[in-house]
């Protein structure tokens, strides 16, 4: 811990902001890496199976099960990243027309509602993870609880993020939308 | 009553700018409370089970293929080919856009990605050549929504899973209506540019055309592999997706050499993020749809629409009206996810071909992407073309109206879709 | 209200049985326990549904014993290949102590096992050639359930076993991604596999039972009297379901003749298949508890 001599117990706002920004960037980087590894593994598993089936009339029977596990994990990790980057599809056509103070209030309300959903996800998937920890997948033998663990971890991470957004003063929050055009596309690609 | 409660809570949450996936969860929780079975495990179970599907694995695979295509130089070569073939005609750049839109539609499954790629390449050229800005942007938007109709298509995969419809058949069934959409655009564009005096490109020589064709050969082979593979039964849609992804990666890194390792990493990150955005919607919708089933809403809707069941065309017209209204304010994916489980039972009762229904549904929602007040493809073209939303809306109007006429035509004559399907599916 | 969910279509005996159970329980409890039926997998697949039961978010469902094997591997004992000769034998073993003990083993998983239902003997269909001899299976790409016993069984017979979710199966058969699949007649019919498969060979390689299970959380919430009623009604529904399923399997054999080319498989060829599977059978028996095996073997011997 290093602190400036002028404010020994109270770091400046700027440095908190910088530290938080750094933390969120590092988190995103790690999550990105995990997603890419899972995605590459999925491609490799399914593609190898296609090649084996047509080329050699054989196959890896765990391929389907493992790629489903990875898929669920990519989905939930990516959901967290999507929330960090404000990329989840939403309709702001109507709320944009509201006066600024009302918009700010609405923003808090929306965050609160999302937090409620995430807490339900945490509670429910915690119970499901425990319940399914001894249920083994028929082929790979991986506990079925590993599926729900993805939901649990995503729920916890999203809850932390949302609590922070709810409590933190405005100037500590990152700008909701960056100007990077590739991000713009990311939001809408489900169409 | 229950339907009203569900729809009100969903639309209110969306209107108040809650992300749509969370709005679906909220409406599911409202149904839980209404039915007296509030339990966080219902949410967790269905959210996780909804994301757990082998069939939907096709989504990340096709997203990887599409993303690699646009950043690995495949799209560029397709536009260059289009330019050498039709660039010299009157209103030429418009025909280039339509041609490229159709070819890119057969490589990628997402309207928004295609519109962005087309618009960022062609709009600046069209502006420079003095084409009317609003109309050009409108054409790109209208061309972009061919992507979800011609296979591969992420919306067709989603409706296939949501409605238990054969995805292979949906893919084959989308080819002809997608091409008809392209022809429609050609006709409208010809009418629009008939009177205008527009600069045209110099006619390409035979040798130039051959070169463009050779350069784009590997890109043009991809749709042949996908559609041919599914048609002949070599691949399931999921396998076709993985083959497309691997193929696109190989072409762009080893043959075109436009994507290095770090570029590929970025592409994979992007594809994974996009996958998660779509799949979280799917997962959230499956929570809502579990409660919709428990509340027996599909039966209520079937009862309501039952008087129309004797007349499939009239029923289809009513359903299309509902979908159009919902699609005006809601994005394509959530519209499919919310309405399919509700409408599927009555569609089956009325004896409507589910494949035909799936194509019509997706076509209708795709048109919703270019209608105000909320149209995601319009948003994209507005930002890519840097013009006013109102201008994009008026620019797209003639194309959108033509598509609506097309939709009515398909309601009146389902054979236009079903006949080629059964010929193709053999 | 209570809910019973099934994964198979409305025309399949699984859902027919569920309707009967719902009707009987609603009626005989004088509406105190009203039961709604959700067929056709609208609430999820068998694995999802079983997990909902454990959590108490769903009251009843009817998974295959192959699904229950992931909760208790001993359930595999029922699906071991070439074990039962006929339905009478099946009923004797499953309704006896061996079957009952298996049902009771689910209690510590939050599940009350009520009764065995019939899904019938499984047969092979494919699009290449009739399976008349044990050698005919060689090299066929056969879709199996995502269950280790079935994968090993078909690989053991010389096929290339391809585990795949059932909702992808029709398309895979239609596009010839796989050559064939194996199921009882009722599934072949209700899933319309006859539209995309030419040959049906009556291998009867394994018997498939389904189990009516209830959520323990739900059963515990009922009065003693109501719990007894559930058991009585379950028995009545099971007898009805088995009868409907077996009758339907018989009539379907006749009806499917019009759509497919059906052949019987000679007894000596089925015995040859069984011999080839001995290593697989031994391997899977080794994973089943000693108590279950001995009870099961004794009941089987007695029923012959
Ligand atoms: Na497409
Ligand atoms: Na719209």
UniProtKB/TrEMBL annotation, chain A:
GO terms for biological process: C4-dicarboxylate transport. It is a multi-pass membrane protein. Keywords: Cell inner membrane, Cell membrane, Membrane, Transmembrane, Transmembrane helix, Transport. It is found in: Cell inner membrane. One of its GO terms (molecular function) is transmembrane transporter activity. Its main location: membrane. The keyword ATP-binding does not apply. One of its GO terms (cellular component) is plasma membrane. Belongs to the TRAP transporter small permease family. Part of the tripartite ATP-independent periplasmic (TRAP) transport system. This is TRAP transporter small permease protein. It comes from Halomonas cupida.
From TrEMBL, chain B:
It is a multi-pass membrane protein. Residues 8-416 form the TRAP C4-dicarboxylate transport system permease DctM subunit domain. InterPro entries: DctM (IPR010656), TRAP_DctM (IPR004681). GO terms for cellular component: plasma membrane. The keyword Ribonucleoprotein does not apply. The chain crosses the membrane at residues 6-33, 54-74, 94-118, 139-165, 171-192, 217-234, 240-256, 276-295, 315-343, 355-381, 401-425. Keywords: Cell inner membrane, Cell membrane, Membrane, Transmembrane, Transmembrane helix, Transport. It comes from the Bacteria. It is found in: Cell inner membrane. Belongs to the TRAP transporter large permease family. Part of the tripartite ATP-independent periplasmic (TRAP) transport system. The complex comprises the extracytoplasmic solute receptor protein and the two transmembrane proteins. This is TRAP transporter large permease protein. It comes from Halomonas cupida.
């Amino acid at each position: 811990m290093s602190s400036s001599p002028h404010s020994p117990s109270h770091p400046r706002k700027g440095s908190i902001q910088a530290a938080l920004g750094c933390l969120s960037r590092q988190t995103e980087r790690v999550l990105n890496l995990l997603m890419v590894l899972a995605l590459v593994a999925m491609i490799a598993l399914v593609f190898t199976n296609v090649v084996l089936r047509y080329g050699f009339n054989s196959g890896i029977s765990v391929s389907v099960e493992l790629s489903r596990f990875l898929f669920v994990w990519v989905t939930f990790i990516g959901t967290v990243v999507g929330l960090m980057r404000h990329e989840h599809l939403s309709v702001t056509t109507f709320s944009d027309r509201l006066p600024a103070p009302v918009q700010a209030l609405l923003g808090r309300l929306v965050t609160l509602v999302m937090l409620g959903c995430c807490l339900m996800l945490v509670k429910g998937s915690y119970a499901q993870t425990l319940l399914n920890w001894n249920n083994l997948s028929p082929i790979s033998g991986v506990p079925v609880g590993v599926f729900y663990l993805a939901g649990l971890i995503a729920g916890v991470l999203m809850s932390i993020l949302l609590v922070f957004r709810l409590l933190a003063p405005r100037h500590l929050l990152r700008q909701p939308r960056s100007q990077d055009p590739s991000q713009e596309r990311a939001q809408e690609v489900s169409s | 009553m229950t339907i009203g409660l569900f729809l009100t809570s969903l639309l209110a949450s969306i209107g108040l700018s809650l992300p749509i996936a969370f709005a679906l969860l909220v409406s599911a929780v409202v149904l839980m409370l209404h039915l007296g079975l509030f339990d966080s495990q219902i949410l967790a179970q269905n959210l996780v089970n909804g994301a757990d599907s082998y069939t939907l694995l096709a989504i990340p695979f096709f997203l990887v293929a599409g993303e690699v295509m646009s950043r690995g130089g495949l799209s560029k070569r397709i536009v260059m080919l289009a330019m050498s073939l039709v660039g010299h005609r009157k209103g030429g750049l418009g025909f280039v856009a339509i041609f490229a839109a159709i070819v890119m539609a057969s490589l990628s499954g997402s309207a928004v990605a295609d519109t962005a790629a087309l618009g960022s390449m062609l709009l600046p050229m069209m502006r420079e050549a003095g084409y009317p800005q609003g109309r050009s942007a409108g054409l790109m938007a209208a061309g972009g929504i061919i992507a979800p109709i011609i296979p591969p298509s992420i919306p067709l995969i989603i409706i296939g899973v949501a409605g238990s419809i054969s995805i292979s058949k949906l893919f084959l069934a989308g080819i002809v209506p997608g091409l008809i959409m392209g022809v429609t655009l050609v006709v409208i564009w010809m009418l629009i540019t008939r009177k205008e005096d527009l600069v045209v490109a110099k006619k390409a020589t035979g040798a130039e055309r051959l070169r463009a064709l050779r350069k784009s050969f590997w890109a043009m082979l991809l749709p042949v592999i996908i559609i041919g593979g599914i048609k002949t039964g070599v691949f399931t849609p999921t396998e076709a997706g993985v083959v497309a992804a691997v193929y696109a990666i190989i072409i762009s890194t080893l043959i075109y050499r436009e994507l290095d390792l770090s570029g590929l990493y970025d592409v994979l990150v992007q594809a994974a993020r996009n996958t998660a955005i779509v799949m979280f919607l799917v997962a959230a919708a499956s929570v809502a749809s579990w409660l919709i089933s428990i509340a027996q809403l599909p039966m209520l809707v079937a009862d309501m629409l039952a008087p129309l069941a004797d007349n499939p065309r009239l029923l289809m017209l009513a359903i299309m009206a509902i979908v159009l209204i919902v699609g005006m304010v809601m994005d394509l994916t959530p519209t499919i996810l919310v309405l399919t489980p509700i409408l599927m039972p009555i569609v089956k009762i009325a004896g409507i071909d589910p494949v035909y229904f799936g194509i019509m549904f997706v076509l209708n929602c795709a048109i919703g992407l270019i209608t105000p007040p909320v149209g995601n493809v319009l948003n994209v073209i507005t930002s890519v073309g840097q013009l006013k939303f109102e201008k994009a809306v008026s620019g797209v109007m003639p194309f959108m109206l033509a598509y609506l006429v097309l939709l009515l035509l398909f309601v009146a004559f389902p054979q236009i879709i079903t006949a080629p399907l059964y010929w193709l599916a053999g | 209200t209570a809910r019973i969910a099934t994964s198979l279509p409305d025309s399949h005996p699984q859902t027919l049985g569920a309707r009967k159970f719902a009707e009987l329980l609603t009626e005989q409890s004088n509406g105190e326990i009203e039961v709604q039926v959700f067929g056709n997998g609208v609430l999820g697949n068998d694995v999802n549904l079983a997990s909902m039961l454990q959590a108490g978010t769903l009251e009843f469902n009817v998974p295959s014993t192959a699904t229950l094997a992931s909760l208790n591997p001993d359930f595999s004992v029922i699906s071991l290949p070439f074990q039962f000769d006929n339905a009478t034998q099946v009923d004797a073993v499953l309704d006896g102590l061996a079957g009952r003990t298996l049902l009771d083993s689910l209690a510590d998983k939050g599940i009350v096992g009520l009764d065995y239902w019939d899904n019938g003997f499984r047969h092979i269909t494919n699009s290449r050639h009739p399976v008349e001899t044990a050698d005919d299976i060689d090299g066929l790409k056969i879709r199996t359930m995502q269950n280790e016993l079935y994968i090993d069984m078909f690989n053991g017979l010389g096929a290339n076993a391809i585990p795949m979710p059932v909702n992808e199966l029709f398309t895979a058969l239609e596009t010839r991604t796989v050559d064939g699949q194996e199921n009882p007649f009722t599934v072949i019919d209700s899933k319309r596999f006859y539209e995309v498969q030419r040959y049906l060979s009556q291998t009867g390689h394994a018997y498939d039972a389904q189990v009516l299970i209830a959520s323990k959380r739900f059963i515990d919430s009922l009065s003693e009297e109501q719990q007894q009623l559930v058991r009585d009604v379950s028995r009545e529904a099971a007898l009805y379901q088995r009868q409907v399923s077996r009758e339907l399997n018989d009539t379907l054999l006749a009806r499917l003749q019009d759509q497919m080319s059906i052949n019987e498989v000679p007894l000596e060829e089925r015995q040859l298949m069984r011999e080839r599977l001995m290593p697989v059978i031994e391997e899977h028996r080794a994973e089943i508890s000693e108590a279950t095996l001995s009870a099961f073997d004794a009941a089987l011997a007695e029923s012959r």
